[in-house]
Amino acid sequence: MTKGFVPPAYPYDLLDELRAAAARHPGGAIDCSIGTPFDPPPAMVVEALSSSDTERGYPPSIGSVDFREAASGWVKRRFGVEVDPATEVGACIGTKEFVAGTPHFLKLRRPDLDTVLYPAISYPSYEMGARLAGCRAVAVPVDDQWRIDLSAIESADAADALCLWVNTPGNPAGGLDDLDAVAEWGRDHDVLVLSDECYAEFTWDGPPRTALARGTSGVVAVHSLSKRSNLAGCRAGFFAGDADVVQYLREVRKHAGFLVPGPVQAAAVVAWSDQDHVDLQRERYHHRLQLGARLLAALGAPAELPGGGFYLWAAAPDGDTWALARRLATEAGVIVSPGEFYGQAGAGRVRLAVVQPEERLRLAFDRVCGS
User: Fold this and answer.
1) SS3 316
2) What burial class does residue 271 get, using C-beta atoms within 10 Å of its C-beta: 0-12 exposed, 13-18 middle, 19+ buried?
């Protein structure tokens, strides 16, 4: 019998040893391994979630009119970019399923192409989405500022590419790509650019940016409420851009049964329409990045503050990723993610997500340095 695809171990399931070590501390483990929000979502969003009266019927797969108009309105306010809610916006169930599943749908449309390009240091779902689609996953090197190096893409890979993924601000390293240059490269090489912009609200160096800034042709941007509004458990996001691609994905996703629940769509309208709660969350994360940097420095692993996002990307003092991760667990009770989770180019580093409340990060620092 021919053996088919065997899923690899899920990266974060490999941290059980660290969790056990961290849990031995009085006060328990401080989990900074995953970007799971610990802060509450806005009360008005929770209220909308519980009072929409949309529980009985099937919600529109593409997103309700109100959902798409709210998403389009936010893009206009935040980036100064017009996207037509009728033809250039679609709903997705969070954005991880979109990242992992879209190459499969694109491959159905273009069976002559077999390559997915993605940053060499990046969230693992870009590579996994390519593998699940039966495509070649080709990692594109990043430069010393963690930005994708377009000049390193081989011409043969560009010719066979279904798409190029970029992520700005980047996870795990916080790099800020030149998205105008990325979009131009995609149009010049007839390669669809898929721009994951879920951390856009947490851009520290300059204003938030989008690959749609100079037009939607050949570009689809992806946004989520998971980080922006602390709604990771609701699974709500949208994709917007090239009308032809968006229309295709909206139609195929209908057939596949992808539906953002009606109450979640109603809550998303409220979330996309409010900026005050996001500004508060920005302040929290910016302050926590500084606390996390102090903790890492105390352990001999200093990390620069990122250009965007809420992760610290620290080099292990002796290059031993797992040794630093174990030390953080045993001495500080903090669980972090080893850098190789984000590609082999990430070996020798760890990622610390500053999602925990300030008092928990201070507790970690006190465990290392004394109160």
Assistant:
1) coil
2) buried
Q: Coil, helix or strand for 80?
A: coil
State the chain's maximal CA–CA distance in angstroms: 62
Closest listed residue to residue 246, CA positions, set 86, 95, 115: 86
In what order do the strands lie in the sheet containing 161-167?
A: 89-92, 237-241, 219-224, 192-196, 161-167, 115-119, 136-140
Does a cis peptide bond (omega within 30 degrees of 0) precede residue 42? Answer: no
How buried is 239 (Cβ within 10 angstroms: 0-12 exposed, 13-18 middle, 19+ buried)? buried
Q: How far is CA 26 from the centre of its chain?
A: 32
Which tokens sit at 344? 């082999």
Query: Token match 């953080």: residue?
Result: 328
Q: Per residue in 171-188, pLDDT tens?
A: 999 999 999 999 999 999
Among the CATH numbers 3.40.47.10, 3.40.640.10, 2.60.40.10, 3.40.630.10, which is that of 43-272?
Answer: 3.40.640.10
Q: Does domain 11-40+277-369 have CATH number 3.30.110.30?
A: no
Rounded CA-CA distance 356/325 in Å is 17
Tabulate helix, strand, coil % of the chain (nearest 5). Answer: 45, 15, 40
pTM of the model: 0.96
- Please give the pLDDT value at position 370: 76
Return the residue matching tokens 């879209």.
Answer: 102
172: cis peptide before it, omega within 30°? yes
Distance CA 207, CA 215 (A): 18
Instruction: Judge whether residue 371 has pLDDT over 60.
Output: no
Rounded Cα distance, 138 and 364, in Å: 38
pLDDT at 356 over 90: yes
CA dihedral sign of residues 352, 358, 364, 370:
positive
